[in-house]
Amino acid sequence: MAWFKRNNKGIQTPTEEKKDIPKGLWYKSPTGKIVDTEELQKNFYVSPEDDYHVRIGSAEYFSILFDNKFTELDANLSSKDPLKFVDKKKYTDRLKDAKNKTKLNDAIRTAVGKSLGKKLVVACMDFSFIGGSMGSVVGEKIARAIDYSLKNKIPLVIISKSGGARMMEAAISLMQLAKTSAKLALLAEANIPYISLCTDPTTGGTTASFAMLGDINISEPGALIGFAGPRVVKDTTGKDLPEGFQTSEFVLEHGFLDFITHRKDLKTKINLYLDLILNNPIRE
Known about the structure:
By secondary structure, the chain is an alpha/beta fold. It is built from 9 helices and 9 strands.
């Protein structure tokens, strides 16, 4: 005997007339808070109820930091496959898939524009492109952004959001740590300010190079910042980790960050820090 029996006399909706709820109208934060995506956008992609900072990409950060418009630098740089790397999939296929999915050429975009009326160069990583991994293009675009800052004497901001070095480029990827660090040393010698913004997550070779070399190192609330991830550290040490380990608040408490700022205050704070470094009059 069947437990249930369909009642054919009930209301039946033809398949072609059924309506699905449109995707992307709501966002659920890790704490379970539901927010309208339109409201989320107006609130700088921060959940208003629990202050959770949603991961965003270069397009969103550029809209937050620049006044009205910006000029993208070296937009067409794209990775090659000098090592002919094959794991479960060819590296060239991974790149092609990432480009199609994200509409980006690699894991970083660089641009110049005005922020509160003053010129600023911004290099922003995109985690959606192969986990924001740092390969040859990421290193080269950062190096060229630094060269642009040097030539035009414009302050630099780098926004890190990365899982670390790109394994498909092996040693070539690791070379970018030294390359970007050496370029930033030239920027320091020229007394041109560099502010590093660490967002969620900032890990691996990114943390081991340019992300921690700012004149001022800042972060957003709750961001994961470290070299190896918490699970790897715990498995390696065999010890339980302190509460909040590798969050931006933990990193600030232990002296590796200068300040944590809410995303809505990001533009104002960065310009304030630049004014302090350059000894400019503080604006009201």
